[in-house]
Amino acid sequence: MPSESLPQLADSSCGTGPGSVPVFNCVVILSSLEEGAKIRGRVANLADVSAEGNSERDVLMQLARQFKIIITEYSRNQKPVPWIDPPESPATGERQRFIPVHL
């Protein structure tokens, strides 16, 4: 009789074993610009990473791309990442988002 159970994933595919892909939290703070419908965003846990765009999605994509490039470079050079800890907090009128970034 065939088994009715579902196949199980290997531990490493769940990020718990050797060969797992590192994941980093990119904390983003978003705000609307006064002069139009543009959105501005900055990474709250890594300095000097910001972007502007016409939509939240555009800004989040730009920030995630920049964040990944920076973190990849630190990892490649085996240097510690200069995290802002604790991350900046959103001010009045700003919104916070979290992006999991896989290397």
Could you characterize the architecture of this molecule?
The protein has 103 residues and is of the alpha+beta class. The protein is 20% helix and 26% strand. It contains 1 helix and 4 strands; from the N terminus they run E-E-E-H-E. It has one helix at residues 56-76; strands spanning 23-32, 39-43, 50-53, 95-102. Strands 3-2-1-4 form a 4-stranded antiparallel beta sheet, with helices on one face. The longest helix has 21 residues, at 56-76. It is elongated. The model is unreliable at 5-13 (pLDDT under 50).
Write a compact overview of the structure shown.
The protein is α+β, with helices and mostly antiparallel strands.
Largest beta sheet: strand ordering: 3-2-1-4
The beta-strand count equals 4
Shape verdict: elongated
| DSSP strand content | 25-35%
Average residue pLDDT: 86
- Helix content, binned percent: 10-25%
Cα Rg: 18 Å
Count of alpha/pi helices: 1
Question: N-to-C terminal Cα separation, in Å?
Answer: 42 Å
Order of helices and strands: EEEHE
Q: Which consecutive residue ranges, at least 5 long each, have pLDDT under 50?
A: 5-13
Notable traits:
single chain; 103 residues; alpha+beta; four-stranded antiparallel β-sheet
What is the secondary structure topology, with strand pairs?
Blueprint: E1 23-32, E2 39-43, E3 50-53, H1 56-76, E4 95-102
Antiparallel strand pairs: 1-2, 1-4, 2-3
